[in-house]
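Thread amino acids onto this structure.
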């Protein structure tokens, strides 16, 4: 029987999923392998009748430059009891599968390792190689290498963000934009800085103080007042959804948000509009202060996950897909494929990224870097001590809206 590989996609989509799958398929097909695409992520491996299909060149060639994921995705995370009672070992043995390729985040990678160890214990060892993705750009890849999908998501978000800024200027209004980012503010800051937004709020800014609803709102008010002093009656504030992750239960209750949680224990932020919540909190504050400012919410989330990948990710993801074969041919397993900034393929092992608790810590925005500080100091608008006297025409206590005092910088 011809040797085969199986590919699955887990977690949420990111631009370039199909590019990775298509490139893996094309490469292995050319080497004489059968390529099996597994639908519904890991759930298919714990099902007596998994949905899968052979990927030939024509399917791979059709999907490689498309957005979304041709292979249906799933966030299914198997329990120990699933391994004991439901694992479909025959899927591997009957199809002569020698390699499991997984495309997803750190949860997907961890489950791949569990499966590889389980199969080895069953005396059916297979290789497993993971391709890391996330539009959040928060996996700690070496030398600041981006995760695939981030650049395309940032581009898609910037297209929306530019239109929002033009609307604000055209209508003399303010907008509150929220962007995805579970624990890091890369996407929000990337879009906000590309659009020259006068206020960007990400969790990493609160490195010296606790995040509260009041501080978030006051940062936006600071920008509104500063722009008024500059004679500018419009603007956009970008807020990363990740600030919710650092709010205490008491603070979350103040926001009025009630979260449900996914299989990995993460709050399902996609089910609520953060922009709407932030905007409501801002409007309430503006009324209290007697400031006549109109604001509107805009959410940047699912709109960018399945967009067509830009050239950067088309090339990057193709290299990652071909890199899977290079590592497999070298006998590598239990690793992620990594492409260095100078174009070399190497394995990246989860153990090298994990902390003492066995978790992969997120790569946060380096708030002290010149790249970030230049935007904060030159592009963003907010109250400073020099503005206190003039700002008293709008608020009695302008120091409460001093950007750096709020953050205790």
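Threaded sequence (409 positions):
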């Amino acid at each position: 029987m011809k040797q085969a590989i199986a590919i699955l996609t887990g977690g949420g989509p990111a631009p370039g999923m199909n590019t990775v799958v298509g490139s893996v398929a094309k490469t292995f097909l050319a080497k004489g392998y059968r390529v099996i695409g597994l639908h519904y992520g890991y759930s298919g491996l714990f099902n007596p009748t998994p949905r899968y299909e052979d990927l030939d060149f024509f399917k791979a060639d059709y999907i490689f430059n498309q957005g979304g994921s041709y292979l249906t995705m799933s966030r299914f995370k198997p329990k120990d009891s699933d391994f004991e009672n439901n694992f479909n070992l025959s899927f591997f043995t009957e199809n002569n599968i020698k390699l499991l390729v997984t495309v997803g985040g750190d949860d997907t990678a961890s489950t791949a390792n569990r499966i590889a160890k389980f199969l080895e214990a069953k005396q059916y060892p297979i290789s497993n190689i993971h391709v890391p993705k996330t539009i959040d750009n928060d996996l700690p890849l070496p030398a600041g290498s981006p995760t695939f999908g981030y650049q395309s998501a940032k581009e898609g978000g910037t297209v929306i963000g530019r239109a929002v800024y033009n609307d604000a200027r055209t209508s003399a209004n303010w907008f509150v934009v929220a962007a995805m980012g579970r624990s890091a503010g890369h996407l929000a800051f990337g879009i906000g800085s590309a659009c020259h937004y006068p206020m960007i709020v990400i969790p990493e800014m609160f490195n010296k103080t606790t995040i509260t609803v009041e501080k978030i709102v006051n940062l936006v008010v600071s920008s509104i007042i500063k722009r008024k002093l500059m004679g500018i009656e419009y603007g956009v504030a970008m807020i990363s959804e990740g600030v919710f992750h650092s709010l205490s239960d008491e603070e979350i209750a103040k926001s009025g948000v009630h979260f449900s949680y996914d299989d990995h224990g993460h709050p399902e932020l996609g089910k609520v509009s953060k922009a709407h919540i932030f905007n409501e909190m801002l409007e309430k504050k503006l009324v209290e202060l007697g400031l006549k400012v109109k604001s509107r919410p805009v959410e940047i989330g699912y709109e960018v996950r399945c967009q067509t990948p830009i050239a950067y990710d088309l090339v990057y993801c193709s290299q990652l897909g071909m890199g899977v074969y290079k590592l497999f041919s070298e006998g590598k397993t239990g690793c992620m494929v990594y492409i260095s900034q100078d174009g070399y393929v190497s394995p990246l092992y989860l153990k090298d990224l994990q902390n003492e608790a066995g978790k992969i810590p997120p790569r946060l925005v380096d708030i002290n870097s010149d790249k970030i500080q230049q935007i904060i100091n030159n592009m963003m608008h907010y109250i400073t001590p020099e503005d206190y006297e003039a700002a008293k025409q709008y608020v009695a206590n302008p120091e409460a809206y001093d950007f750096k005092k709020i953050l205790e910088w």
